[in-house]
Design goal:
Blueprint lengths: L4 H4 L10 H16 L7 H6 L5 E8 L3 E2 L6 H12 L5 E4 L6 E2 L4 E8 H32 L5 E3 L9 H10 L12 E4 L1 H7 L2 H11 L4 E6 L2 H10 L3 E5 L3 H14 L10 E5 L4 H8 L5 E3 L2 H4 L6 E5 L3
Parallel strand pairs: 6-11, 7-8, 8-9, 9-10, 10-11
Antiparallel strand pairs: 1-5, 1-12, 2-4, 3-5
Length: about 300
């Protein structure tokens, strides 16, 4: 009753979500809604015959950027497997990363009505959440167009949904920063306190994990220059007023290619980066703006599943 990988993921933003991650996440979400597998939907299974077949439209109730449509087929297939029914088929009209209008049909789903109604909330929860993140990201990407700067996400994600939310950032036109604590070292003020100095923290990371890049957080121009001298690969410029940020960018650029400083140092602005301030910050010459709000504060994009009347 399963479906092939091609059928499951017809609309994917590269790099796509790991199918194994999708399957595990959907299973956990269904357990929450139905109870431990196989679970039950007491309303639907009491009121809808198991042999009833129908169609439903996945519809955008708001304009925005969609993401997470890629989870739909897996969600439907797992519900079908739990109930011993045929897996519905999804015909996609929109793709992850598309801008859509209110009222637009994103996909049509055909199959057992019990499966459609039981899978509805899990499917919508995941796709609406991802679409909200993609919509917020697209707004920043548009604001930064032509500046040379990109918008990045952070680790301020929903536990268990990081892969989905970072995928949604990519769908919205943003860039993933580090995926976790394991792939990039970020030396922050507490690490400096623990190590005794910026140079000590950098040296400790290089000795222990020589394969990772090292970013250092700086609150002032002086801290940024100190971090450069200590061997930082790139800098996180935190909560700087725009004039201070611009001065720091100039100071760093003047040192590039000299005294062991790389020819180009990636500079990332962060802290209090609202949409109305984004372009002003980008025009200081930073390479990136990291915005935690993309994932920790983005409202969902309202999506609905409308069963067609027979």
């Amino acid at each position: 009753m399963g479906v092939s990988e091609t059928e499951r993921q017809p609309s994917v933003v590269e790099p796509g979500l790991d199918p194994g991650w999708i399957a595990r996440t959907v299973a956990v979400a269904l357990d929450e809604d139905l109870g431990a597998a196989p679970g039950r939907d007491v309303t639907t299974q009491a009121t809808v015959p198991a042999d009833a077949v129908g169609a439903a439209d996945l519809v955008a109730r708001q304009s925005g950027t969609v993401a997470g449509l890629v989870v739909a087929q897996e969600t439907l297939s797992q519900v079908a497997d739990r109930f011993g029914l045929d897996a519905p088929q999804v015909t996609y009209v929109a793709q992850d990363g598309d801008d859509v209008e209110r009222g637009q049909v994103l996909a049509t789903i055909t199959g057992p009505v019990q499966v459609l109604l039981t899978a509805e909330r899990t499917l919508l929860n995941l796709a609406s959440r991802a679409s909200g993140v993609a919509t917020a990201t697209r707004a920043f990407a548009r604001e930064l167009a032509g500046t040379g700067a990109t918008v990045l996400d952070t680790r301020k994600t929903t536990p268990g949904l990081r892969a989905l939310e970072k995928y949604a950032v990519r769908a919205g036109g943003g860039t993933n920063k580090r995926m976790g604590l394991y792939d990039v070292a970020m030396v922050k003020d507490n690490h400096v306190v623990a190590a005794g100095s910026v140079a000590g923290a950098i040296a400790a990371v290089r000795a222990t994990f020589p394969d990772v890049s090292i970013q250092v957080e700086a609150d002032t121009t002086e801290q940024a220059i100190e971090a450069l001298g200590a061997g930082a690969d790139f800098l996180l410029l935190d909560n700087m007023p725009t004039p201070v940020l611009a001065a720091t960018v100039r100071a760093v650029r003047e040192r590039e290619g000299r005294d062991g400083v790389p020819a180009h140092v990636d500079l990332e602005a962060t802290g209090n980066l609202t949409l109305d301030r984004a372009r002003e910050v980008a025009l200081t010459g930073v390479d990136h703006l990291s915005v935690g709000a993309l994932t920790h504060s983005a409202p969902i994009l309202d999506l609905a599943l409308d069963l067609r009347s027979s």
